[in-house]
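Thread: quick sanity check before group meeting

JM: Hey all, I'm pulling together slides for Thursday and realized we never actually wrote out the predicted structure for the chain we discussed last week. Dropping the sequence here so it's in one place. If anyone has concerns about the input, flag it before I start.
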Amino acid sequence: MAKTFKIKKGDQVEVIAGDDKGTVAQVLEVLTKKDAVIVAGCKIAKKAIKPTEQNKEGGFEDKEMPIHISNVKKVEA
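JM (edit): ok, ran it. Output follows.
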């Protein structure tokens, strides 16, 4: 059976635990298999990028990482 959450893509949420505690931002993606959400501008990590045909230089990219759904709460707009 598929899991359902009260938080959907596009909702405004507040981070209630972790380094980004108190941040209010929009949900970019809901990961039901991991019970997690990706929130815009929260839990940023640097990811290494290999050089490719399109990106000759390679380098690093800032990427939002998943936050467990229990660590966010929906904010009524």
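AS: nice. Residues 17 and 32 are 20 Å apart (CA to CA). The chain has one domain: 12-74.
JM: adding both to the slides.
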